[in-house]
Design a protein that fits this description.
globular, Rossmann fold, 16 helices, alpha/beta
Length: 568
């Protein structure tokens, strides 16, 4: 299906790969092409194993490549039967169940896939549906998630353009245009009834929303070519083409990494997927049983975030055989040196780093076999056929010049994986006239092409005459064993607020946190003064990231109210 045997260990490998045009690297034009080709080549091979929970007693449901292809065709035919046309958005809010995968691939075959997080408030869901122009929503019903169901009834009032809700359980009410998914599916053929006309590979195939940590989520658009490109290149980094690769998936399907970097890339190379429960890593039964899952299913690969790896380090192997594991990736944030070393001592596997964002899918990848590597902690090198540069901007966001090696600036990117936002007005400020996308990340690059992400450009403040990274403060806090979540917020330079959520059963004082931060960072920044507040809960998105804009709005309201009280 694709050129095999490629390895990427340094920028020289990237440049060597680029000597052959990208168009010659693979023939697949769409995700549907990948599924169809896999069904022909590996028809009876296990493609997807779904675990109802993380318990070793959970009875798995398994699909071969042929069965997945049949279900994708069936679901695509269902979409056509309810009026979906080319260019229509198909929205869905679902846990990580097999039907989610079938919808993702079938939606791209006949329209545009639009997965949405179930953790968003009704107002944001309604706005995403309105932006996508979606008339149809697939979801679970009141039995599975009563709160979500109530929210969606509110969404319908907020967005009258939503004409049909199709529910994956008994919730039919034809008077309200609420239909049962399985009733509709049962009448559909598993043969493709839709016209397999040649799809423009540069056409939009999916809308994914951003995390919404810095503000209301934005709708990002991806092309058929872009997602196939990432499926191809991710498999090289993650080594999915190895024989008997088994990806253990715990990421949510509304995040681009799960359906594209894990699922589509796995299917591109004929690997198998094990979906670890509908809630993935958020299921409380998954992490305690993870090593047994590795042993039982001979798991070879996984993608997680640093807090997951830290949690896994607390779970004893208890004799579980984890020798099958060879590819572990930390998404978006480099793992700490301590956790890297402990995980390698436990499993004999090094954790690689993948940097990306919804707007770029994947941007960089770094594999360090040892924490002593001079490039350890970096986001890695760029992907083949992608361009990255670090630039200095003026106050209006215009590029002044490219940065020198090791000089800090704003990370800009362009390539087949970057296609901007659905709302075109956002693209006018996000892209330069030459097509460079401003990621909003502050970074630097060394002479060997390795990139270090320092944080969001908006997450730097000037303090004591120096620029302080709020991300660095948060990373420092997260390394404390008693701290579960933390957020550093600044309304202006020389002003810093820290929100801290402790692990259950632990205790810290304001002075404890203040001393810990300053002991850790005083040498670099001098004495840092801050206001520290403990919270039992912090506002989180579906990926467990703190919604900092909500905390910032709260601080702004306090400031306004405090000013009014002083005037009175």
């Amino acid at each position: 299906m694709a050129s095999r045997g490629l390895q990427i260990n340094h920028i020289g490998d990237v440049e060597e790969i680029e000597k052959i045009p990208l168009e010659a690297r693979f023939k697949e034009q769409t995700a549907y092409d990948i599924i169809e080709g896999a069904a022909k080549k590996w028809a009876e091979r296990n493609a997807l194993t779904f675990l109802p929970s993380g318990s070793p007693l959970a009875k798995p449901v398994t699909f071969t490549y042929k069965q997945i292809f049949d279900r994708v065709n069936q679901t695509a035919n269902l979409l056509l039967s309810i009026g979906v046309k080319s260019g229509d958005a198909i929205s869905y809010i679902l846990p990580s169940i097999p039907e989610n995968y079938f919808l993702f691939f079938s939606s791209q075959a006949v329209g545009i896939a639009n997965p949405i997080s179930f953790s968003l408030p009704p107002e944001q869901i309604a706005e995403l549906l309105r932006t996508a122009g979606s008339k149809i929503l697939f979801t679970t019903g009141s039995k599975t998630n009563p709160q979500l169901w109530d929210n969606l009834l509110t969404v319908r009032n907020l967005y009258p353009g939503l004409k049909k809700i199709i529910v994956l359980e008994d919730e039919t009410d034809l008077r309200q245009s609420i239909y049962n998914f399985y009733d509709l599916l049962s009448t559909q053929s598993s043969s493709p009834l839709f016209q397999k006309k040649k799809i423009n590979s540069k056409a939009i195939c999916s809308y994914f929303h951003t995390s919404g940590t810095m503000g209301p989520p934005k709708l990002v658009q991806h092309t058929h070519h872009g997602v196939v490109y990432i499926a191809w290149v991710a498999g090289i980094f993650a080594k999915y083409e190895r024989t008997n690769s088994v990806i253990l998936s715990g990421l949510p399907m509304f995040h681009v990494a799960a359906p594209v970097v894990e699922a589509l890339s796995a299917f591109f190379y004929g690997a198998s997927m094990v979906v670890m429960s509908p809630l993935g890593w958020s299921d409380p039964s998954v992490i305690p049983h993870f090593w047994k899952i590795v042993e039982k299913y001979h798991g070879t690969s996984m993608v997680a975030v640093p807090p997951i790896y830290k949690a896994l380090l607390k779970v004893p192997l208890n004799g579980a055989d984890t020798s099958s594991l060879y590819s572990t990736i930390s998404g978006n944030v480099a793992i700490s040196e301590e956790d890297f070393n402990q995980f390698k001592a436990l499993t004999n596997v090094s954790i690689a780093t993948l940097w990306g964002q919804t707007e770029a899918l994947v941007g960089c990848f770094n594999f360090s076999s040892t924490s002593k590597s001079k490039n350890f902690g970096s986001a890695g090198i760029r992907l083949p056929y992608e361009q990255i540069k670090i630039v200095k901007l003026d106050k209006n966001g215009n590029v002044l010049r490219n940065c020198l090696p090791m000089e800090e600036g704003v990370l800009c990117i362009k390539g087949p994986n970057v296609n901007g936002y659905k709302v075109q007005a956002l693209n006018k400020t996000a892209f330069s006239p030459a097509g460079w996308f401003n990621t909003g990340d502050w970074a630097y690059q060394n002479a060997e092409g390795y990139i270090w992400i320092l944080g969001r450009q908006a997450d730097f403040i000037q303090y004591n005459g120096k620029y302080i990274s709020l991300l660095e403060i948060e990373t420092t806090l997260h390394q404390h064993p008693k701290i579960k979540k933390a957020a550093a917020i600044s309304l202006s330079d020389e002003n810093l607020d820290i929100f801290v959520m402790l692990h259950e059963g632990t205790h810290m004082t304001v002075d404890d946190v203040n001393q810990y931060i300053n002991d850790s960072l005083k040498e670099k920044y001098g004495l840092i003064k801050m206001d520290i507040e403990f919270r039992h809960e912090l506002p989180l998105n579906g990926m467990g990231k703190v919604l900092k804009y909500i905390l910032k709005e709260e601080l702004q309201r306090r400031k306004i109210n405090w000013g009014k009280r002083r005037e009175a």
